[in-house]
Amino acid sequence: MPGIVSLKTPPEAPPLRISVSEETNGRVDRSEPVIPKSNSPAPRRPPSPSPSTSRAKPSPDRSSGKKKSPPEKVVIDESSLDNPDLGPFLLKLARDTIASGEGPNKALDYALRAAKSFEKCAVDGEPSLDLAMSLHVVAAIYCSLARFEEAIPVLETAIKVPEVSKGADHALAAFSGYMQLGDTHSMLGQLDRSIECYKDGLKIQMEALGDTDPRVAETCRYLAEAHVQAMQFDEAENLCKKTLEIHRVHSPPASLEEAADRRLMALICEAKGDYEVALEHLVLASMAMIANAQENEVAAIDVSIGNIYLSLSRFDEAVFSYQKALTVFKSSKGDNHPSVASVFVRLADLYYKTGKLRESRSYCENALRIYAKPVPGTTAEEIACGLTEISAIYELFNEPEEALKLLLKAMKLLEDKPGQQSTIAGIEARMGVMFYMVGRYEEAHSSFENAVAKLRAGGERKSAFFGVVLNQMGLSSVQLFKIDEAAELFEEARRILEQECGPCHQDTLGVYSNLAATYDALGRVEDAIEILEYVLKLREEKLGTANPDFDDEKKRLAELLKEAGKSRNKKAKSLENLIDPSSKTTKKETSRKWSAFGFRS
């Protein structure tokens, strides 16, 4: 009986193959098709936190490697589907068709009829686990054809077939179904639904195997990676801690499993601003990789260590780490590999921050040359990520038009890639900022609108990043005289940022100020006064009054109070005075925030 395992495949997995499991004494084998999954960007620029490819690679081809001859064409009478021998036969035909490379459409037809046969042959009206397995196969074929929406109802039916209380076989089938359904939701960019499915799968696995089984650790890490993608760092940290505890018991010291866990934990800590803790995890992960002679993985960790040193302004140490990684990547992968380009981008960012602008620009140009002529095997996602990071540096050079060109190229590379909705939304949000900076407010508003729609659809409507994008869209609405829309956007941003960041956070305070100005323009003076009084109280009691925004807000409040004491002119205020003087600061802070969540060069 195969164990209940997480969806994990080796890094060198070949392109997508759909393999159909054999029956094992009537039991469902876990070698059924697994849906490939593309990574959405983690909230910060991901430093390859984990060598686990469970959330990124398709399932390997489990055939023997020899190309089989196409199966003979078989004509099947639909009326014979109630024959109990027909379901297994059709499923075998589907497997042979896929293995022969004849194409997924014919395999899909066989698998659909197999499922129908298993359903008709149910004993006492209770569907068998063979039905669940065949439905998993049907869904996997749909996904290989990029028909993800059609795979969803198939998998929703499949997870209703097993009864977990009936034993390990049923638990295995239910677990597999939930994980596959989660992957499919993720390919559609529906991270919230994806996470719920993974949680259900993990719960079933823990009930079947116990809380401390090593296979539970793999699923915990899988779910933690999903939480990182959704910017839910506290949940990700708790799961990663559990994974570390399990591997500490079941794995030898300095194991590859522990190294993978620590790299993910470092990414989470970095995203939360706990740089020293992140550094500790990376050093321990590096030691484990050195012990296991994983030279390229050590170099990847060196890049991550350099990122932490850069965040801590320890520039000399950062340069040393980057140069170590660069030497390894050039010797093992070649001078034109995207890994080399990614280190060039990191060095470009570092040299910009240390005032060496010529060196910074030179490294950007070197990286762009590599991305312009990628070596075979380079993915569109790698190039898009690199272009996005370089665009952030050109933004710092005060070259927004050049930054926009790079962002447009990155977005075009990802347009047809499933599972990249979050990445594209992030790029569109950055483009909105660029358009706003150069005064192209219509295009800025359109970019923000597209980003907001994708983030809503992807279940990220409660993240701090989403709140920041709403605030920026509100600013563009103001410039287009859409004051009512701006008020709605600022109100939604306030609710989200209060929940995610707290009322004292700089982003939340910026939204308060913008909302007060908008209420004033709409003639809602009392509401504007209430917000400004609340902000001043926060500054006086918790943040101090040294901030220059304090004096500005105090003056604005005094003006409103004075005006409210008179006969109020209901005419809206001039829009040039609508956004407070600190709004430029807010925009810069927002740009820096986005850089920290995945667009930092």
Automatic annotation (TrEMBL):
Which InterPro entries does the protein's record reference?
A: TPR-like_helical_dom_sf, TPR_rpt
Which residue ranges have biased composition labelled Basic and acidic residues?
Answer: 58-76
Q: Which PROSITE patterns match?
A: TPR
Region feature (Disordered): 1-80, 565-601
Alphabetically sorted, this entry's keywords are: TPR repeat
Q: Where are the TPR repeats?
A: 299-332, 509-542
List, alphabetically, the SMART domains matched.
TPR
- The residues forming the signal peptide are none
Protein name listed in UniProt = Kinesin light chain
Question: To which species is this protein native?
Answer: Solanum bulbocastanum
